Inverse folding.
């Protein structure tokens, strides 16, 4: 232990306290760094991996859609009217499944036209 003269003791203690405070703040900063930086790196890595997965999914979906289009186009070039009708019917089936029950009436007809079930599995006459 060093005992400074009384005339400089107060300044000596202030310097000592400042050094201790400095060390304390450095240790707090290192502790915070060790908590925050690895967590941020982990989150960044996770985000990058999610983005790569999303990109791969989008590419695969696009390839599938392109393959489907190419296949339909080949059939269309062989039989245009049949393919056009098939696409129309498939599209109407998809749309009608989302529509739900519909009642169609005609003022000129005597009564109500048959009710068609368009939901789940295509058209069904009720």
């Amino acid at each position: 232990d060093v005992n400074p003269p009384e005339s400089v003791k107060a300044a000596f203690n202030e310097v000592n306290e400042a050094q201790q405070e400095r060390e304390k703040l450095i240790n707090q900063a290192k502790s915070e760094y060790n908590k925050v930086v690895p967590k941020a790196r982990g989150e960044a890595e996770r985000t990058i991996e999610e983005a790569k997965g999303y990109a791969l999914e989008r590419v695969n979906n696009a390839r599938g859609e392109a393959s489907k289009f190419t296949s339909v186009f080949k059939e269309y070039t062989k039989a245009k009217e049949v393919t056009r009708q098939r696409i129309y019917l498939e599209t109407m089936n998809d749309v009608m499944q989302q529509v739900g029950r519909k009642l169609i009436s005609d003022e000129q007809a005597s009564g109500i036209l048959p009710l068609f079930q368009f939901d789940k599995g295509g058209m069904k006459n009720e």
